């Protein structure tokens, strides 16, 4: 199913850590951004099939029944899931696949893909900084923000289990770090097609 | 003994693959290049304490006896060894340490350091290319070159066991790849001192 030349990149990090700004810097010609299914309503400006596939709870549960999800979770009464078809789409286009996914989804992907996927955590410089960033956004109620902070705290506990961590202090530095990680991971022996030539000559 | 913030970088690759040209690009302010001991005579221009510590076979054997070597090997009647003191020197200067080392030395370091060190193989684009490069040098007899090629063949068999491989087609690309590997490896959770702040806040 998977071609080792193409990376499976799993990116996790609490809202407010700057995940989406960093991911925006990856070129669409090389990276396919896995689109999740969700039962929540679209926010203003969000596009079906780009930000999410917005479906009803009934539809979501049908997809669970049919085994169409790689992983799914229920967070704050909302369902989120990654369909298996996303991986096929990425690889048929000859692109790396990027999963922008919360920690429970990432944990399921770790169980499914283990060493095959690259797990990157995007963290805020510290926890109080995260609080500040979320309050500055001002799009949500205090209660919702507190729920998010509690969740962020739970997520941050997982950092040492990830392959890499980007402590996002400066956007440009973080983008360049993510790109270095991608370049370095592409130099893994098991991902280098050109290596087979050399091995054929010596083994 | 070791500080996880500082990398132990083990670089292996056959002569003619372009190892030294790539390593020259790493700044001396950040990288300490481990100097090996050898019993071979210095070539014109080689400096004791910089290229190698040139010592006699008697002195070399005494150091073996005293357990001063991290690893040592005998290649083509010449002894080569890495003294334990090199690591102390690097870390006391607050630098990453780079071991430019042939495959048997690298294998011993793998046994000693396992996941602690980063193992990078620098390979020629293909085996016949290596032959061409070695012949072009013209500093050695045909017999010596053939010995080197045979040895190179043995070394190349190890590539899939390394963490990363740099197929050196273009020097600038290879240098930039090595730098990306170093940046990426510095983003390993276990190498990030700043992470302890976050963990203290959430665990």
Q: Tell me the β content of chain A.
A: 15-25%
The coarse overall form of chain A would be globular
Query: Given the structure, what is the number of helices of chain A?
Result: 8
Assigned CATH superfamily of chain A:
P-loop containing nucleotide triphosphate hydrolases
Helical proportion of chain A, percent range: 40-55%
User: What would the CATH topology of chain A be?
Assistant: Rossmann fold
How many domains make up the 3D coordinates of chain A?
1
The succession of helices and strands of chain A, N to C, reads EHEEEHEEHEHEHHEHH
Name the CATH architecture of chain A.
3-Layer(aba) Sandwich
Can you describe what's shown?
2 copies of one chain form a homodimer. In chain A, α5 packs antiparallel against α6 (142-156). The first copy, chain A, has a single domain (8-202), classed as Rossmann fold. In chain A, 40% of the residues lie in helices and 21% in strands. Chain A has helices spanning 19-23, 57-65, 85-92, 103-113, 127-137, 142-156, 171-185, 195-202; strands spanning 8-12, 31-33, 36-38, 52-54, 69-75, 78-83, 96-100, 118-123, 164-167. The mean pLDDT of chain A is 91. Chain A has 203 residues and is an alpha/beta fold. The two termini of chain A are 27 Å apart. In chain A, the strands form 2 sheets. In chain A, strands 2-7-1-8-9 form a 5-stranded parallel sheet, with helices on both faces. Chain A is built from 8 helices and 9 strands. Chain A binds chain B through residues 121, 123-128, 153-154, 156-157, 159-167, 176-177, 179-181, 183-185, 187-190, 192, 194-195, 197-199, 201-203, and chain B through 121, 123-128, 153-154, 156-157, 159-167, 176-177, 179-181, 183-185, 187-190, 192, 194-195, 197-199, 201-203.
């Amino acid at each position: 199913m998977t071609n080792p030349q193409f990376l499976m990149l799993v990116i996790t990090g609490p809202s407010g850590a700057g995940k989406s700004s960093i991911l925006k810097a990856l070129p669409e010609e090389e990276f396919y951004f896995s689109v999740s299914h969700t039962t929540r309503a679209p926010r203003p400006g969000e596009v079906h099939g780009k930000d999410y596939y917005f479906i009803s709870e009934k539809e979501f549960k049908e997809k669970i029944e049919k085994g169409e999800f790689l992983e799914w979770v229920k967070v704050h009464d909302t369902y989120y899931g990654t369909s298996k078809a996303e991986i096929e789409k990425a690889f048929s286009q000859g692109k790396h696949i990027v999963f922008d996914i919360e920690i429970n989804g990432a944990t399921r992907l770790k169980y499914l893909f283990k060493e095959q996927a690259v797990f990157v955590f995007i963290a805020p410089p510290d926890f109080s900084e995260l609080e500040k960033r979320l309050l500055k956004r001002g799009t949500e109620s205090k209660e919702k923000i507190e729920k998010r902070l509690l969740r962020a705290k739970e997520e941050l506990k997982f950092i040492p289990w990830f392959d890499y961590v980007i402590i996002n202090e400066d956007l440009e530095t973080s983008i360049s770090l993510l790109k270095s990680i991608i370049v370095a991971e592409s130099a893994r022996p098991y991902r280098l097609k050109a290596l087979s030539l050399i091995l054929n000559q010596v083994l």
